[in-house]
Description:
The chain is of the alpha+beta class. 58% of the residues lie in helices and 14% in strands. The chain has helices at 3-18, 23-37, 62-74, 78-85, 101-109, 142-165, 168-196, 200-213, 218-227, 246-254, and strands at residues 42-48, 54-59, 89-91, 114-122, 125-134.
Amino acid sequence: MDGQLLAETFVDLTDTMAAGPxxxxxxxxxxxxxxxxxxxxxxxxxxxxPDGQLRVAAASxxxxxxxxxxxxxxxxxPCLDCYHTGQPVTAADLATAQRWPxxxxxxxxxxxxxxxxxxxxxxxxxxxxLNLFRATPGPFDPADVHVGQALADVTxxxxxHERSMRHSEILTEQLQTALNSRIIIEQAKGILAERLSLxxxxxxxxxxxxxxxxxxxxxxxxxxxxDDTETHISLTTGPRSKPSTGYFHxxxxxx
Length: 255
């Protein structure tokens, strides 16, 4: 494991929340860095909305996002068990998993053969689950599980600390905004995928890179693309320039 990257990850998570309540960007740092740090293929995050219903809040890949959605629709899977029990749940080989037959079949179809779910919990309160997916069967490295749980704990503390500094209704609104932002981001991904003939993973990478290069929130740029209001958020030459999607065309050509 890259010790420097691990340290940078905790700094990035802290800085993202310290700079302002950009919960969506914060959660994407968690899932993307989990894949970079740990011996896993993908990561997904489920968060409970104000009514206690689990929603997909972030995912490192389209395959992981769809698998998380499938769990919620099917009402079964290790991630749901992890959230409801508040305890880690692991399946080292989904080919032999019998507890979640529908999930196991869907996961293997998506290219995943092992999963480790880690609770986002502070004492008795469980807010969601961080889910680690791997393409090869076998037990997860205990060191990876330990680091993954540490990342989940830091995320949980950061989210709940935000609530303690503000009124509980404000945190609830922020979490709901993060979940709602997922809808806008998925719409923007679809627009780019169709417009540039890309797969969804590549479309998301272009959207994310464009937001970073312009120091914009991912959800803000996605909404501008969906609403076709790039007059104030140009994707090529900066604010207040002619609306264009040239950035994405240029990025596609360079890929």
